[in-house]
Amino acid sequence: MQILDPILQTHGLSVYYDAKKAVTDVDLDVARNRITAIIGPSGCGKSTLLRCFNRMNDLIPSARVEGQVLFDGLDLYGHDVDPTEIRYEIGMVFQRPNPFPKSIYDNVAFGPRINGFQGDIAELVERSLVRAALWDEVKDRLKASALSLSGGQQQRLCIARALAVEPRVILMDEPCSALDPIATLAIEELMRELSEDYSIIIVTHNMQQAARVSHYTAFLMVEEARVGFLVEFGESRQIFTNPEDERTEAYITGRFG
Amino acid sequence: MVRADFDKNLEELEAELLVLGEMVEKAIIKSMDALERRDLAMAYEVVAEDDLIDEKRFELEEKCIDLIATQQPLAVDLRTLLAVLHIAVELERMGDYAEGIGKICMIIGDDEPVETPKQLPQMAKMGVTMLRRSLKSLMDRDTDLANDVWDSDDEVDALYAGVCNQIFLDMGQNPKTIEASTHFLWVAHDLERIADRATNIAERVIFVVTGRIGRYKYPSEESD
Amino acid sequence: MSIISQSQFQRRRARRKWMGRAFYGLCLLSVTIALGMLALLLVYLLIQGVTGIDWSFLTSFASRHPDKAGIEAAMLGSIYVVIVAGVVSFTLGVATALYLEEYAARSKFAKIAKINIANLAGVPSIVYGILGLQIFVHSLHLGKSVLAGGFTLALLVLPIVIVAAGEAVRAVPPSLREGSYALGATRWQVLWHMVIPQAFPGILTGVILAVSRAIGETAPLIAMGALTFVPFTPDSPLSRFTVLPIQIFNWTSRPQAGFQEAAAAGIIVLLVILLVMNAGAVFLRNRFQNKWEG
Q1: Going by DSSP bridges, is the β-strand pair A35-39/A216-222 parallel, antiparallel, or unpaired?
Q2: Which of C195, A234, B94, C35 is nearest to A248 (CA)?
Q3: Are strands A169-173 and A35-39 parallel, antiparallel or unpaired?
Q4: For position B224, what pLDDT does the model report?
Q5: How far are the Cα atoms of B25, B53, C4 from residue B179, in angstroms, in the given order?
Q6: Within an 8 Å CB–CB cutoff, is residue A241 touching chain B?
């Protein structure tokens, strides 16, 4: 299926850890200002694929990437591309909320500060917290420790922190798997709101969440050689009611994986 | 085996649906029989037994809702459960038509010497065949068979048009038969609706297999 | 339905209870012996020496007469030498730990280096004294000075700081590092803004251990040329010096009873200095540690 004007594209993307191939030959288009979900059984390389988009795999010495990842046409793995620059544009939220052991304010201000932001940081912090639907709950205690927040609040804080550097894409690696159901639904609603202004890619092992939240879904699978590959990509509505590939259907109906 | 319980539940559900189909089939045959033989006792039985059909349908509906709520079905499982739900309703309506024929039989009574138009048993027979085949197409997930059922509806429609014309002619020629003829028109209508419902069932079968909703043939009408 | 019949268990409840009590008693006994010894030592010291501590004791120099003996020179010498050792070992130690744990993390070099550093902590301290004599006193022409003494001790305690700092840096959760990188931080920014502040309590622990070790060292300083009889206070980093342990040792080897008392008093002063330094570091550590706990 064709995505018009994708914000991110991969062409023949493969990832190796030393000699072992983890993900093979993925061609994926990510739609602008939409939520794209990546689903698949454990070990299929969903997180590995996600981390290619902001070059977080660079932090793993044994990781090697082949193929292209294009961000609005720019090859992210080109010779003169600085990974830290990419990460301002493409932010990330992790599976377990990882607020820094600082105040709520300092958490959100961390990104802008280290990137040399010259403007009004207090205003930026407020704007980010508002957009992350957390402002009302913390506006009276910005100096309190971030660790005093509940799990769901901490994850929203991490989202605010990512938003503060004004990215265009937000990567989410199973953002709700450590949260209770109510907090999960709050984050999902937030995602839907954010997708109007940001392009979001979410990795999730929760099928119902992918169905609820995403506009497009990519299904990755792994076969005996333990190499992950893309099986099917399409509109979520279609994938979850009538997928084209029988492997997709088998996974979605819980008959394997 | 993952989801073995769920698979078993789905199998049992479809089996129950076939049981309902059989009940409806018998009801149609019995009602037509009663009409032809002016057997009032049999007609009365058909009317009474419709309650059982209604009960069975609600049973099936509840089971479907149960499974949808507790199993979070997706893709083919979701389509199957929705189809079973719809088909149960179609079958129950077909049962109602059979009941209607039984009631008409009781109204006509055993003293009117008016002949039953011969197309009516023909239509009933075709309707039953279509019902049987549509349920078989569900069992076998056979879209070709489902398409055949859909096509058979044309024949029933032709018969319906024919019997209506004939009844109008008879009414015109012999005004004393108007009352009985009107009843027969109603029976013809019920039988035509039965056939129609069978095509609805066939449509649902196509939905389960292909995920496509709506009236179209498969595969000839598709471009991709 | 039970598969194992109850009779197969020989519960031996009584025996287990008894063993539990015996073990508890053993632990209690050990604590009593250890603390008892310490208490005895402290009491002995206090009895012997507390009467000798007065202002003149603290501000006089050593002399041949027991009642005129003072520890001003030794006290100041100890403080200066330990400060030099502390600063040098802290800087070198933290930088080394960062290199080994962050920059060269998975390399073979780092693995070998870490093993060797841990072993260095067990080298007899006099070896460092001889090393210090050769390198700092002679080759670098620092003479038998406070600076040379401080450097020598710094070398001695460096493995302690490196190991403690290394562990502290390793203990910083990877999630904090990842979170920082994901916001566009460079490696240096991650270390400076996230890792070092987080590891600081652990690093301070290393410094406390190092300083406590350094202040009590005698042999290496004697080997590199610290004096035993110093009638002046060290006035520059390059002046000659003595330290408290040496002075104390000197007094204990004299026959007069007055000197024994002076030695005890000296030990008390040494302990007090040590306590004050440790208390300061612990205070600092607590401030950093509890700051951002939820």
Answers
A1: parallel
A2: A234
A3: unpaired
A4: 42
A5: 28, 30, 84
A6: yes
Residues in chain A: 257
CB C167 within 8 A of CB C183: no
Q: Which percentage of chain A shows pLDDT scores above 90?
A: 89
What is the total count of domains within chain B?
Answer: 1
Whole-angstrom distance, CA of residue B31 vs CA of residue B24 = 10
Domain assignment present for residue B105? The answer is yes
Query: Could you count the other beta carbons within 10 Å of the beta carbon of residue C146?
Result: 25
Provide ipTM, 2 decimals: 0.94
* Chain C residues close to A103, C-beta within 8 Å: 292
Residues 6+ apart with CB under 8 A from C131: C152, C155
CA angle at residue B44 from B43 to B45, to 5 degrees?
Answer: 90
Residues of A with CB under 8 A from a CB of C: 54, 56, 59, 61, 84-85, 87-88, 91-92, 94, 96, 98, 100-103, 110-111, 114-115, 145-149, 158, 161-162, 165
Answer whether residue B156 is part of any domain.
Answer: yes
Range of the domain at B141: 4-210
- Residue A197 backbone phi and psi in degrees, to 5: -115, -15
Domains of chain A: 8-100+169-252 (3.40.50.300)
pLDDT in tens, B170-212: 888 888 888 888 999 999 999 999 999 999 999 999 999 998 8
CATH of the domain at B105: 1.20.58.220
Class of domain C58-290: mainly alpha
pLDDT at C264: 84
**Cα–Cα distances in angstroms (integers) from residue B88 to residues A241, B26, B97, in the given order:** 21, 16, 14
Nearest Cα of chain A lies from the Cα of C102 at a distance, in angstroms, of 11
Find the CB nearest A242 among B3, B6, B211. B211
Helix axes C257-290, C72-98, angle to 10 degrees: 30
Identify whether B224 is part of a domain.
no
The span from the CA of B79 to the CA of A111, in Å, is: 47
Say which residue the tokens 């083919």 belong to.
B76
